Amino acid sequence: MSARRKSDSNRRQPAAGKHQERTPQPGPSKQPGARNKSTRQTVSKSAPKKGSRNATTAAEGGTTKKTRKSPTLSVEFIVATAIGLADRGGIHALSMRNLATELRVEAMSLYHHIPSRERLLDLMVDEVFGELGTPATDAQISWQEWLSVQSNRMRKVLLDHPWAVGLLDSRKNPGPATLQYQNHRLGRLRQAGFSMDLAAHTVAIQDSFVYGFVVQELALPFEGAVDIEQLQGFQDAMQAGDYPYLSEMVASVVSQRGYSFAREFEYGLKLIIEGLEMRFRN
After folding, report:
1. pLDDT band at residue 76 using 50, 70 and 90 as cut-offs
2. Alpha-carbon separation of residue 47 from 43, 51, 66 (angstroms)
3. How far does CA 66 lie from the centroid of its chain?
4. Among 167, 169, 154, which residue's Cα sits nearest to residue 90?
5. What is the pTM of this model?
6. 8 A C-beta contact, residue 132 and residue 153
7. Which CATH code of 1.10.357.10, 3.40.50.2000, 1.10.287.180, 1.20.1070.10 fits the domain covering 133-220+267-282?
8. Mean pLDDT, residues 271-282 taken together
9. Strands, E, within 129-171: which ranges?
10. 37 pLDDT tier (thresholds 50, 70, 90)
């Protein structure tokens, strides 16, 4: 009996050291500010490299998405860009979509400033009439000299903007520069003593002559002084002698050194002024 109690007592005693508190083993001492390995790994993965685009963006609180900066749109800027596009590619190259591409914006952005292509053409034409504007010195010269200077200015501007030739008088909604230009021309002639009827004839003749000459000048297969080699095709076509007067003109006029079709502009303008002088005196 006593042996059994002793056996039970032995089972209830814990094994030596089984539930004893573990004494922590001394480890390597931490240096001030040191981080453990997992922390260093996390930092190395999340922090951008110094000097990188992400680092700069993160420092500025921005995003890493690269965006294309669009220009600030205004009616004046849109019209100027449209004129440049038409000067390079012609009026048929001008669409709201092509213009938007040129401006690096969405096409719908243009309609917030200009409601339609037709309205855009109105504004472009008015800008060209602004270039035709007359300087203050016009009042200090004779009407003959004024008409010559103004006609030459018209020709130069239209050669700079060939697309405008067929549009200048086509707009149903003229702008202020258009109206000012037309009013100034009539006023300049009226102040010189022209009747309103003769002044109206004069501006109509001036427009017809300058517009028509520019159209013909732009269509010629050569520019400036004519080179004899450029006339070879004409000469070959007239070898049979069936066109004696054309052959004479080519031989005695066009093939002469320094000939340029531009000379016909000054000659035609002189004839117009001489005819107007006769009408004005009568």
Report:
1. very high
2. 6, 12, 20
3. 25
4. 167
5. 0.69
6. yes
7. 1.10.357.10
8. 94
9. none
10. very low
| Token reading at 197 | 């009827």
Cβ atoms within 10 A of the Cβ of 22, count? 5
Is residue 160 a contact partner of residue 121, using CB atoms and an 8 Å limit?
no
CA quadruple 219, 223, 226, 230: dihedral, nearest 10:
-70
Q: What is the dihedral of CA 202, 205, 209, 211, to 10 degrees?
A: 100
For 260, phi and psi rounded to 5 degrees? -140, 140
User: Which of 197, 210, 217, 219 shows the shortest CA–CA distance to 280?
Assistant: 197
CB count within 10 Å of CB 16 equals: 6
Parse the chain into domains and list their residue ranges: 75-115, 133-220+267-282, 224-260
User: What is the gyration radius of the CA atoms in the chain, in angstroms?
Assistant: 43
Range of lowest pLDDT (42-56, 88-102, 113-127)? 42-56
Distance, CA of 85 to CA of 99 (rounded, Å): 8
pLDDT digits 0-9 by tens, 229-265: 666 776 677 776 788 888 888 888 887 887 888 899 9
Q: Of the candidates 201, 204, 210, 206, which has an alpha carbon nearest to the alpha carbon of residue 279?
A: 201
CB atoms within 10 A of CB 38: 8
pLDDT single digits (tens) 1-30: 444 444 454 555 544 444 444 555 555 444
CA 109 to chain centre: 16
Q: Which CATH superfamily is domain 75-115 in?
A: Homeodomain-like (1.10.10.60)
State the chain's mean pLDDT as an integer. Answer: 80
Q: Residue 184 has which token pair? A: 């100034």
Our measurement of the distance from residue 158's CA atom to the centroid of its chain's CA atoms, rounded to an integer in Å, reads: 18
